[in-house]
Write a structure and sequence with these properties.
Keywords: 4Fe-4S, Cytoplasm, Iron, Iron-sulfur, Metal-binding, S-adenosyl-L-methionine, Transferase, tRNA processing. This protein is of the alpha/beta class. It has three domains: 132 residues, Methylthiotransferase, N-terminal domain (Rossmann fold, 3-Layer(aba) Sandwich), CATH 3.40.50.12160; 229 residues, Alpha-Beta Horseshoe (pyruvate-formate lyase- activating enzyme); 63 residues, OB fold (Dihydrolipoamide Acetyltransferase, E2P), CATH 2.40.50. It contains twelve helices and 18 strands. Helix 4 links the parallel strand 5 and strand 6.
Length: 456
């Protein structure tokens, strides 16, 4: 062990916030002398940043812990994140992990690993031979934002930046307030410092993300708003695009959208959480708006932007959802004309209000409704993308891909429509990742991918 670097492999499950924290932990380990390797390789440490948003996420978290143990029975298996926060005691009892780290404790990772590699320590031998070391705090009673920062990201041109954690909404189906705690905002100075550092490293696009992004700043003494932090990021040289993570519909006001539309770096790409297109279902979900109010938000965005990309989340098969209520949802989805929709089958989460509701929908019914919603999603997404056929748009180049015998470089428009430009002898030197170019959309290369021609 002393003759080589300790090797660590990390695997992320779940949302963009989790992905950000996994990248931050990876960089912390690198700074402490670890060599980062693929999860498929043999390592001294396997870290799984878990998710608990659905039953399937719980299952995947357990499966990855078992998989890590099989890869190297003597490695230190680390379970971190939301599944840990909700089922930490169960993980300790099962000996599926050697080190259990809850949310708001991830920045301590290098320090918590030290006992496992100290010569003579009884923690040297792992393999489930000891009870796990557990570091899980009462997340509901902390107001501290856990500062973690990135110098680089896994993506080469786009950087996700976590600026907020926690949620106070307590939707009746959602476990997140219990696994992430109450709202906590990152200090503006730390946000801006990270954006500047990433800009200097060559990143041209940043995505501001959080567990409940719309509440950013409400807990800070300076009472800064999400709009204000966006305005500050907009002033940083080098950053050419700003995207926003998931937003609550109520933040979409005339003032908010008008101000955003005046900032040319802000992309017209808005993820507005919906969950259901039926008012009765929304009420049972404890969502604080009606479908009419939600649709007014969509109209506001379309008032200030020519063709904004509006994406959303939809849960099908929520307790007591009737066939009529589901049909109402499908009708509303067509009316709202979403670009993309993430469709989820309702998943019962222990401890939430919806878990004890009567009228639980059979799994086969949820599966059928999910299939119908996904079919509609594909149609609406295709209609949105085809709007650009023959039109000129700006794409941020990312990476080359082979399609048949030809090589293309792909990139995304400001609305997050993916397009690809064929690489030729004439343009190869200019088609570089991180460059913004104008293209004309000419056809379809594959599922969800448009072909485009460079228009210098």
């Amino acid at each position: 062990m002393e003759n080589r670097k300790k090797r660590a492999a990390l695997h992320n499950l779940g949302c963009k916030v989790n992905a950000y924290e996994t990248e931050a932990m990876k960089q912390l380990l690198e700074e402490h002398g670890y060599e980062i390797v693929s999860f498929e390789e043999e390592a001294d440490v396997y870290l799984i940043n878990t998710c608990s948003v659905t039953n399937m996420a719980d299952r995947k978290s357990r499966q990855m812990l078992h998989r890590a143990r099989k890869k190297n029975p003597h490695a230190v298996i680390v379970a971190a994140g939301c599944y840990v926060q909700s089922a930490g005691e169960e993980i300790v009892r099962s000996k599926d992990a050697d080190l259990v780290i809850g949310n708001n404790q991830k920045a301590r990772l290098p320090e918590l690993l030290e006992p496992f590699f100290e010569e003579g320590s009884d923690r040297e031998k792992t393999g489930g031979s000891h009870p796990a070391d557990s570091f899980v705090i009462d997340i509901a009673h902390t107001s501290e934002y856990e500062e973690m920062a990135l110098k680089k990201t896994a993506e080469h041109t786009r950087a996700f930046i976590k600026i907020q954690d926690g949620c106070n909404q307590f939707c009746s189906y959602c476990i997140i307030p219990y696994t992430r705690g109450r709202i906590r905002s990152r200090r503006p100075a730390d946000v801006l410092s990270e954006v500047r550092r990433l800009s200097e490293a060559g990143y041209r696009e940043v995505v501001l993300t959080g567990i409940h992004l719309s509440s950013y700043g409400k807990d800070l003494e300076e009472k800064i708003s999400l709009l204000e932090i966006i305005r500050m990021v907009h002033q940083i040289p080098g950053i050419q695009r700003i995207r926003l993570g998931s937003l609550e519909p109520r933040i979409i006001t005339e003032e908010f959208v008008k101000e955003l539309s005046s900032m040319e770096k802000v992309c017209p790409h808005f993820h507005l959480s919906l969950q259901s297109g039926c008012d009765a279902t929304l009420s049972r979900m404890n969502r604080h708006y009606t479908t009419e109010e939600y649709y007014d938000k969509c109209k506001l965005l379309r008032k200030y932007y020519e063709h904004p990309a509006i994406t959303t989340d939809v849960i099908v098969g929520f307790p007591k959802e009737t066939e009529e209520e589901f049909k109402d949802t499908l009708l509303f989805l067509r009316k709202a004309r979403f670009y993309e929709m993430h469709i989820f089958k309702y998943s019962k989460r222990h401890g939430t209000k919806a878990a004890s509701m009567s009228g639980q929908v059979p799994e086969e019914t949820k599966t059928l409704r999910s299939h119908l919603a996904l079919k509609l999603e594909a149609k609406l997404s295709e209609e949105f993308r085809y709007y650009y056929m023959g039109k000129t748009a700006e794409i941020l180049l990312e990476e080359p891909h082979a399609f048949g015998k030809d090589v293309y470089i792909t990139g995304f428009t400001r609305e997050y429509v993916k397009a690809a430009v064929k690489l030729t002898k004439e343009n190869k030197e200019k088609m570089l990742p991180g460059r913004l170019i104008k293209v004309k959309m000419t056809g379809v290369l594959g599922d969800g991918l448009l072909s485009a021609e460079w228009t210098p």
